[in-house]
Structure formats: C-alpha cells, structure tokens
Design goal:
Order of helices and strands: EEEHEEEEHEHE
Number of strands: 9
Structural class: alpha+beta
Radius of gyration: 15 Å
Helix content: 10-25%
Length: 153
C-alpha cells in the first residue's frame, strides 16, 4: 500500500518481505521532503551500496510509533518527522513490525512505489538505486502506542 502526500513530495509503501517488515519511502529534495531527508541523514540512516543480499545497519536515532489513527516517524526527542494515516499501511506490515519491534526502513529518491509492483521488481529497483548512490536505510524500532485508561485512586 502506498501513502502519498503530493504537497510534501513523500510516498510510502509498507510490505513484508519473507518474515521481515519493510517500509520504503520515496522522497524528493524540495520543501518538506528535503527537510525529512536532512533529518534522516542527521539521525544516522546510512548510505547503502546495495539492497539485495545486504544487511541493513542498526543504530539510527529514529523510530516509528503506531497509534490508533496514524503512524509517525519520530526522532530521539520524540518529535514527529513524518505522519501518515494508519489505514494507509499494510496490516501485515503493522503486525510484523510491532511483533518484531522493528522494520527495515529505506529511503530513495523518485522511485515507483505503486502497490501493483511485485516485491521482486521493487527489490531490484532499490538495488539499482543503491548502486547509483541514492539509497539510505537502517533497521529502526517500531512501537504500538495503545490507549490506556487513567488510574484512579
């Protein structure tokens, strides 16, 4: 499933590759997309030389928080870097990412994230983008924030 906000120049696709959740972002360089790209570089997403057969680095200082209404990417201060409606994310991705408490997260410029594209074709596209020095990524945490009842004493 793809979530796109044309005004921000950011598209997302969530899916499961084998047992692993994968979140792919296609991000431009202008406006809000450029700000996100700068924040992700500062947070430690690393350039990838390849995608196929590679292990993504760990230790980036960002993560995803899934709430009842949205999924947001937050930095280490819990400031939201990106927000998207929860219904736009694959239920399989949400289940796997929250169960494993993490996801593979890669960011590329201007790639096609159409939901009709098979996973194998998307993976080849990501690999080609990495070889052209256009892919950053990391394994990042995912938590599900559940509403709780206030404690009464």
């Amino acid at each position: 499933m793809t979530r796109t906000d044309p005004s921000e120049g950011i598209a997302l696709r969530s899916l499961v590759a084998g047992p692993q959740p994968l979140l792919v972002a296609s991000v431009g360089y202008d406006g809000r997309a450029g700000q996100l790209r700068t924040a992700l570089d500062a947070a430690g997403l690393q350039r990838l030389d390849s995608f196929l057969g590679s292990s993504l680095p760990q230790g980036a200082k960002v993560g995803f928080v899934a709430t009842q209404d949205e999924v947001r990417l937050v930095d280490e201060r819990d400031d939201a870097l990106l927000r998207a409606p929860r219904e736009g994310f694959s239920s399989e991705w949400l289940e796997a990412a929250t169960r494993l408490r993490g996801t593979m997260f890669v960011v590329a410029e201007g790639i096609d994230l159409s939901p009709e594209m098979p996973l194998a074709q998307l993976a080849r596209q990501l690999d080609a983008t990495a070889r052209d020095d256009g892919l950053v990524g990391a394994i990042v945490g995912v938590v599900e924030e559940r509403p709780s009842l206030p404690l009464l004493f």
